[in-house]
């Protein structure tokens, strides 16, 4: 049991480290437009996942999951919605990196868990402690401070946080394995990606194939799928509360890259915004720690 927990921590940590350094990869392929990159990301992710299912002997599992979806209209609609919502998240993230907004992306993924618990309050009827409400309030103050003092509403951060939180919420009702789910999500968004590539070719706007970035873009399927697979393997082995702590590895790495490697502008106003968000995260994490300790004591009794 302890060995499995250790494996879970390693897998989940690796997933968030890879997500954290992802801005470096999208910087390599920035000769190509962000939405063309997104289309290729969908295409090559679908190819990679189908090959992976074939070579790991999981095509039967995928077939059964697909049949299950077709028999349940609500689940089928939910998986399509989830696929396009995560596509919006991907597109926003790629656009943010290519337009030098890595810090905004980092802020978005810091806000994400607080956005998730807010959506759980609205849609799942979950109720929170005073500390958790304080954490949400501090995040709200941080966003409003940036809006009023900097004069810019952090649309990118909010869109990243809300789309990923909504994606997680929808996935709660889709009871199929992670491999099949990721593959189906890629397949249902594939027509939109192919139509967009066709449109670019008809308007002579294709940039894929004309530069060094194109070779790197062929790896986008691997870059997309591997962290998701690692996360799935880790999440099965460790408690959700522990996953909640580990997830801050990603935006922390993004923040460090944005400030120290990509030399993005970072002033006192942005620092104050981040301080509000970080304070909210610390309070939220502490509330989860108290909750976990309380549950352990109840189990012991």
From TrEMBL:
<dbReference type="GO" id="GO:0005886">
    <property type="term" value="C:plasma membrane"/>
</dbReference>
<feature type="transmembrane region" description="Helical">
    <location>
        <begin position="131"/>
        <end position="147"/>
    </location>
</feature>
<feature type="transmembrane region" description="Helical">
    <location>
        <begin position="182"/>
        <end position="201"/>
    </location>
</feature>
<feature type="transmembrane region" description="Helical">
    <location>
        <begin position="107"/>
        <end position="124"/>
    </location>
</feature>
<protein>
    <submittedName>
        <fullName>RarD protein</fullName>
    </submittedName>
</protein>
<feature type="transmembrane region" description="Helical">
    <location>
        <begin position="76"/>
        <end position="95"/>
    </location>
</feature>
<dbReference type="Pfam" id="PF00892">
    <property type="entry name" value="EamA"/>
</dbReference>
<keyword id="KW-0812">Transmembrane</keyword>
<dbReference type="InterPro" id="IPR004626">
    <property type="entry name" value="RarD"/>
</dbReference>
<dbReference type="InterPro" id="IPR037185">
    <property type="entry name" value="EmrE-like"/>
</dbReference>
<dbReference type="InterPro" id="IPR000620">
    <property type="entry name" value="EamA_dom"/>
</dbReference>
<feature type="transmembrane region" description="Helical">
    <location>
        <begin position="153"/>
        <end position="170"/>
    </location>
</feature>
<keyword id="KW-1003">Cell membrane</keyword>
<feature type="transmembrane region" description="Helical">
    <location>
        <begin position="38"/>
        <end position="55"/>
    </location>
</feature>
<feature type="domain" description="EamA">
    <location>
        <begin position="7"/>
        <end position="147"/>
    </location>
</feature>
<feature type="transmembrane region" description="Helical">
    <location>
        <begin position="245"/>
        <end position="262"/>
    </location>
</feature>
<keyword id="KW-0472">Membrane</keyword>
<feature type="transmembrane region" description="Helical">
    <location>
        <begin position="268"/>
        <end position="287"/>
    </location>
</feature>
<feature type="domain" description="EamA">
    <location>
        <begin position="158"/>
        <end position="285"/>
    </location>
</feature>
<comment type="similarity">
    <text>Belongs to the EamA transporter family.</text>
</comment>
<keyword id="KW-1133">Transmembrane helix</keyword>
<feature type="transmembrane region" description="Helical">
    <location>
        <begin position="9"/>
        <end position="26"/>
    </location>
</feature>
<keyword id="KW-0813">Transport</keyword>
<feature type="transmembrane region" description="Helical">
    <location>
        <begin position="213"/>
        <end position="233"/>
    </location>
</feature>
């Amino acid at each position: 049991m302890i060995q499995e927990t250790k494996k879970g921590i390693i897998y989940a940590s690796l997933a968030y480290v890879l997500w954290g350094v992802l801005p470096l990869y999208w910087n390599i392929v920035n000769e190509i437009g962000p939405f063309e990159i997104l289309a290729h990301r969908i295409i090559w992710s679908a190819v990679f996942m189908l090959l992976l299912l074939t070579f790991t002997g999981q095509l039967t599992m995928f077939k059964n999951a697909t049949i299950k979806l077709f028999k349940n209209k609500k689940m089928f609609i939910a998986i399509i919605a989830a696929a396009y919502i995560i596509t919006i998240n991907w597109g926003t993230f790629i656009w943010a990196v290519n337009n030098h907004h890595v810090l905004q992306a980092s802020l978005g993924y810091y806000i994400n868990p607080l956005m998730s618990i807010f959506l759980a309050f609205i849609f799942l009827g979950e109720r929170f402690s005073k500390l958790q409400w304080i954490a949400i309030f501090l995040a709200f103050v941080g966003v409003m401070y940036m809006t009023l003092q900097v004069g810019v509403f952090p649309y990118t951060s909010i869109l990243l946080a809300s789309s990923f939180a909504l994606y997680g919420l929808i996935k709660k009702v889709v009871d199929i394995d992670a491999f099949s789910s990721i593959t189906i999500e890629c397949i249902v968004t594939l027509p939109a990606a192919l139509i967009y590539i066709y449109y670019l070719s008809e308007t002579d706007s294709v940039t894929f194939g004309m530069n060094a970035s194109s070779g790197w873009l062929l790896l986008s399927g691997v870059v997309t799928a591997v962290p998701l697979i690692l996360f799935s393997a880790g999440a099965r082995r460790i408690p959700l509360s522990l996953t909640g702590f580990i997830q801050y590895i990603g935006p922390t790495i993004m923040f460090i890259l944005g400030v120290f490697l990509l030399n993005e502008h970072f002033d006192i106003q942005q620092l104050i915004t981040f301080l509000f968000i970080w304070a909210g995260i610390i309070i939220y994490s502490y509330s989860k720690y108290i909750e976990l300790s309380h549950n352990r004591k109840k189990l012991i009794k």
